[in-house]
Amino acid sequence: MNEHATQVLDAYLDANKLAVPHAILIEGRWGSGKTHFLEKVYEPSRIQRMQAERRRHVPFLFVSLFGATSASDVEMRIYKTANPGEAIAGSLAGTFALGIGEFLRMKDATKGVVDRLGKKAIKRLNEYVFVFDDLERLEKAAFGEVMGLVNALVAEHGRRVLLVTDEDKLKELVGDPIWKDQNEKIVGRRARIEADLESVMRASVKELPDGPAKTHITEVADDLLEVARASKVENLRNLSWAMHNATAFVNCLIRDDEIPASHVVWTMKVVLATTLWLRSGLLDAETLRQIPGLATTLAFRSVSRSKQDVPLDPQLTKAKAFSDTFGFLNVDAPPVDYAFITGFEKSGVLEHSEVTTWIKSQFGFGRKYFEPSWRRLWYSHERPIAETEQALADLKDELARRVHTHLGPILHAAGLALRHWAVNDRRLTDNEDVVAFFKRYIDEVADQRLLERSEPDHFPSILDGYGGLGFSSHDTDEFQQILQYIRTRSKEIAAAELRARAEIVLDEAEAGDLDALFKLVRNDEYELSMNPVLKDVPVNRVAELMARDVPALNAGSKMLAYRYHRARNGDPLLQEIPWARSVYAAVVKKLDEWDEPHRAMALKSMTGLIRHYEQGKQPDDMIIPPEEAAETEE
C-alpha cells in the first residue's frame, strides 16, 4: 500500500540536484497514518536500500508545527529536535533572531553564533531531510511566515523538505486562495497517504515486549486485521489505541490457565472492535448496554404490531449497526462484559481479578464454576452422549425447581425444549406442552417478583444472543408465543417497580423534600424521567401538593414544564399528557382558594413557565393547548 508515495519520495530524495527547487506535500486525512508511514515504513525501508546500495542515507528530522506561532518558533523547534541535549533556553536566547540561514550553513554563520551553538550542533542541521508535520495545526497568523521559512530552505539552501498535512483542514485554516498561492510557489510534487491498517497492526505487534501475550497476539494477527478492516475505521491512531486495549485484556486473561486460549482470542477481537467504534464516536457506553440480547429485542419488535412501524431510536440504531458489522464475533453475546471495556477505555485501569471472575462464572471455566446446563445441552452435537444426558437431567431438574429467573436462560431452555420435542424427546417439560409449561413457569417466578425485569425499550438476554443456542427454535410459532409472554410479564414487573419508585418520589416531596420531584426530569434518572410512570398517580394528590404554597407550586410547575419539553410525536412519555392537563386544571382550580394578588401571581408564573417550554409543540402534545392559554390570559 502507498507504493505511489514511495515512488514520489524516492525520486525526490535520490535526485542529486533538483531542476526546480521544491518541497513534497504528503497529505491525507487526520489519523490516516502519514507520520507513521514516513517514520515507521518509508524511512526504515529507505535505510535498508541505501545500505544495500552502499549509499549514505540522510536521516529525517520530524518537526511538529502544532501550535507554532512564528518562523522563529519553528527554528527553535528544529534546533531542539536535532540537539535536545544542547537546547538550553538561556544560551539560545536571541540566537534565532539571526535567521535560519545563519545557522544552517556554517560558512554564513558568525563566530558568535558558532560559539553559542557549537560547531557540531550546527553541522548536524545540515544532515537532515526536514519533515514538517501538522502544517494544518499551526497558528493561522504564522502561516505566511512559516511558508517563507520553508521556501528559504528549499530555494536558497537547497534542502529537501516534506510537508505533512491534511490538505482539507489546511484550506479551512488559511483559505483556498492563500493555500493555492503558497502551493504553487513551494510544492512541486505530492503524495496521498491512505490508511495502511496492516502496517500499523504489524508494528503494534512487533513493538510488544517479548512474552506469552506477544506470542499469542502474533499467532492471530491476521484475524485481528480482519476485524480492523471490517470496522471501516481508518483512523490509525484509533487502531493503535484499540490494539493497546486488546493487548491489556490478553495480558489479563492469559495469566489464568483455566480460561481457554480460544476465549482469550475471542475477547481480544471483541475488545479491538469495540474500542475502534468507541474512539470513532460510533458507540457509547449506553449503546453497549443494549447490545447483549439485541437480536431478541429486534425480534420482539418484528412481531409487535405497535412497534413495527416505529423507527429505531438512535441508540438501538447504533447498536444494530455494531451487531451487523461484527456479527461474526457474536457481539450480541460478548465474551467479556462491555462495562470492563468502557471502564478501561476511560481510566486505563483493568481489575484483573474482577474480569477473570466474571468470565469464569459466566462461561463455567475452572473447577470452581460450572457451565450452565442449557449451554452444555446445546453443544450435544460435539460432546459424549453421557454428558448430554447429564445436561438434560440437570436442566429438567432446574426447570422443575424454578431455578432460572433471568430471561436469557428461560428462553434458551424453551428453545431447547422445542427442539427436543421435534424429535419426540419430551423429558424437559415432563410431557407437558412446551408453551403451556413455560407460561406456567413464567407466571410462577413473576408472581414471586423473581423474574428479571425488562426495560421498556430493551429486552436483555445474558450470555448468548437470540440467533444462537436455545434460540435456534426462534422461527417457530411456539417460541414466539413464549417470547411475547415473557416480555409482557417482565415489562409488568418493570412497570410496577417504576410506579413504586415514583410513589417514593412523591412521598419524599410530600414530606418536605421538594427537590425530590426533579428525579422525574433528571437525565441520571433515565427510567423515571423517560417513561410514563405518573399516568396512574391520582391527579388530586399532585394538585394538593402543588397548591400547598409557593415553593411547592414552583417545584411542581418546573416538573411539569421540564418533563415533557423534549418529548415529541411517538414518545411514550406523551401518554401522560392527558394526566398532566388534569393536574394543571386541578391546580388552577385550587389556586382560586388563594388570596389576591398571590393567586394571580402564582397562576401567571405556573402558566408562563409551562407555555415557555411548550413552544413549537403540536397542540396534542401540550399541557396547555393554545385555546386554553388564550383563556388564561383573558
Key descriptive features of the protein:
single chain; 634 residues; mainly alpha; Rossmann fold; 4 domains; 32 helices; KAP NTPase domain-containing protein
Shape descriptor reads flat
Largest sheet: 5 strands, parallel
Indicate the structural class. mainly alpha
- Across the major sheet, the strand order is 2-3-4-1-5
Q: For the residues shown, what is the average pLDDT?
A: 83
What top-tier CATH class of the largest domain fits best? Alpha Beta
* Tally of helical runs: 32
Account of the protein in words:
The chain is mostly helical and 634 residues long. The chain has 4 domains: 3-194, 3-Layer(aba) Sandwich (Rossmann fold), CATH 3.40.50; 199-291 and 334-363, no CATH class; 373-494, no CATH class; 512-633. Helices cover 58% and strands 4% of the residues. The chain contains 32 helices and 5 strands. It has helices at 3-14, 34-52, 71-82, 89-92, 101-104, 111-117, 119-124, 143-156, 167-174, 176-186, 197-206, 212-219, 221-231, 236-253, 261-279, 285-289, 294-303, 305-308, 314-325, 338-347, 352-363, 373-378, 385-400, 407-421, 434-447, 477-510, 526-530, 539-546, 550-563, 577-591, 598-613, 626-633, and strands at 23-27, 60-64, 129-133, 161-165, 187-192. Strands 2-3-4-1-5 form a 5-stranded parallel sheet, sandwiched between helices. Mean pLDDT is 83; it is low at 87-119 and 456-471.
